[in-house]
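Morning run. Coffee first, then this:
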Amino acid sequence: MAFPPNSLRAFLTHAKKSLFTAIRSSQRVTIVVGNESADLDSLTSSVVYSYIRSLAPPSGAFTPLYIPLLNIPAADIRLRPEFYTVFRHANIDASHLLTLDDLLDDKGTALKPENTRIILVDHNSLQGELGKKYTARVQGVVDHHEDERRIGPDTSPEPRVIEKCGSCTSLVVRTLKPSWESSTGGSSLVSGAAHAQGDSVENDASVTRTWDAQVAKMALASILIDTANLTAEGKVEKVDIDAVRYLEAKINLSPQDAAQWCRTKFYECIDAAKRDIDALSFEDILRKDYKQWTENGLNLGVASVVKPLEFLAEKITGNPSEDKEDQFVTGIGDFMAARSLTVFSIMTTFTSSSGEFRRELYVQALSPGHAAAHRFAEHAKEELKLEDHDVASLSEKPGSMQPSSEGPWRKIWLQKDVSKSRKQVAPLMRRAMNEST
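And here it is:
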């Protein structure tokens, strides 16, 4: 049975209870999960996909209910201040989300693979512990990254959509738009979960429009962030523009939302929250938007940071009696050791004092990864338009941040092609690791 039209809050409450019941009773479960960086796009694409698909499940679906899963422990939600801004607009809070912690019930019983189907959003290759356990259960994907060809051509009845665009959520909206339209055309029924959360039980079109507007604002959040409010050159595609128009139309159909809606203010509010990382520790900043892969027996990690390397250097270099560069390299080394990394990269994004959008790229590699790091430097220099770069607090010893045969290999660049994000840079690194001998 399809989930009746309802608020997003009521849906997530129902999904969480249903997952616990399914684990305890060994019932079937369909999980929709984003990538392990668990950024805003992974959050919204998994939630929006699950919500709409549950309203109108396809014929032959493994289960009628689709459960969104955030690919991090619940404790790590705090590292993402932009989430809390989006939660307010969607009328939910962090406790409504399902995380990796929820794959065990209150007695420690785990979700059995044979009872599970996985839909991937915002990635097309399941990594980490989830990948080891559930890769064979993947049946569907909506993604905007490079196709790793891990998922076969037939994922029926779920989609197989892998297409370049600014935001995965744009693809989710386009793919499920017909289902969303058909599912909200009838009466608005409210489940017991909605009663528990205080949602209205009126059979009223205005209530349904309010619910739609809340979902639309959640979807818009990641599309606008990933495309800089549709201004990011080289990233924005027609599917992003179409999705924004469609979602804004949903918002404008809701009387209580339309009167105060301003897309620019909405974007600026979420963007400011995303960049508010001053209270986070050095390690937490690196963990906030982090992905990891294993290539050719070597582990690669890539962290995206919304502040310049100078900011990170000041975070780690708190002891004035110790060399700043040594503290930074040691701090990175500790982060790598905790994750058994051979190669680690930090990609920063920020706006300079002159108003110019900039990207920096830092790479540090242990001796088994030196060849891969050299190869990446050679291959990526032209493609990414990399220029040697000095960071004041990390350049006290001339040439010390240049590649060396002693200790960890390390290098800092200014990435002049700012259109290339981790979606493009990480595959270059992974290929370099696979080619190294």
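The first strand starts at residue 29 and ends at 33. Good start to the day.
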